[in-house]
Design goal:
alpha+beta, 6-stranded mixed β-sheet, globular
Length: 235
């Protein structure tokens, strides 16, 4: 659930590649039976591969399109200039209204690791978002996963505290630092905060800022929230 891109590697130059895939399907079925798994998803296959489509259907799978994922190019952004310079005129107005208007209401911290108590708060916020994320049917990541990334220097946490609510943590972004790509992969959010604080949009912008501070030019914004991501220049 935390990755995107083609996950299936097949040597189609081998004369028995289809038989090999059938062994894979059998292994997945056995795994599912042992653990009472009700849904099996093999993501994100090449969309125009008729051979693969036919083989998948013959083995009981149904084709379904993934939600759109978004990429943001920051190569033209000079950090000394306002982010609005990257945006179209109508998006500039939205950015000022939805992000810049609330930016001073937050204390933002980028952390490489946190204490366990803070990590538990982050996890609870993540659970809030997962329970409402219906675009892709995925399982909830366990707390052990967050314990692991808390000890991994490839991950960082972008924490947003709302000054008007006693500096309470109202959002957190879990971001992966790749070789050339910055990936704000998951988010946690307090849905009890009034809409006028624009928590989600502020969190996305702070992730973009963090990526530029870390000297990345490409940000992978993952799936869903299409309109909000287009409004900040993602494609």
């Amino acid at each position: 659930p935390i990755s995107e891109g083609d996950h299936l590697f097949v040597d189609k130059g081998h004369p028995q590649w289809q038989q090999g895939l059938k062994l894979l399907y059998c292994a997945v079925d056995e795994f599912a039976r042992e653990r009472d798994v009700t849904t099996r998803i093999i993501r994100d296959l090449i969309p125009d591969d008729e051979q693969m489509d036919n083989l998948m259907v013959d083995n009981g799978y149904v084709k379904s399109f993934m939600p759109t994922n978004y990429i943001l190019d920051l190569s033209e952004w000079n950090r000394n200039e306002c982010y609005t310079n990257l945006l179209r005129s109508r998006n500039k107005r939205r950015f000022r209204a939805n992000v810049l208007s609330t930016i001073d209401m937050y204390d933002v911290n980028v952390k490489q690791s946190v204490y366990r108590l803070d990590l538990q708060k982050y996890f609870n916020l993540y659970q809030n978002v997962h329970s409402k994320s219906l675009d892709i049917n995925t399982f909830e990541l366990p707390f052990e996963f967050f314990e692991a990334i808390n000890q991994n220097d490839k991950w960082e946490f972008i924490e947003l505290r709302l000054k008007e609510q006693g500096n309470e943590v109202v959002a957190v972004v879990f971001a992966y630092k790749g070789l050339t790509v910055y990936a704000p992969t998951m988010m946690g959010k307090n849905y009890g905060v009034p809409q006028e604080f624009n928590v989600y949009r502020q969190a996305v912008y702070q992730a973009i800022k963090a990526s530029k501070e870390a000297r990345y030019d490409e940000v992978r914004l993952s799936f869903s929230a299409d309109i909000d991501k287009k409004n900040i220049g993602a494609k």
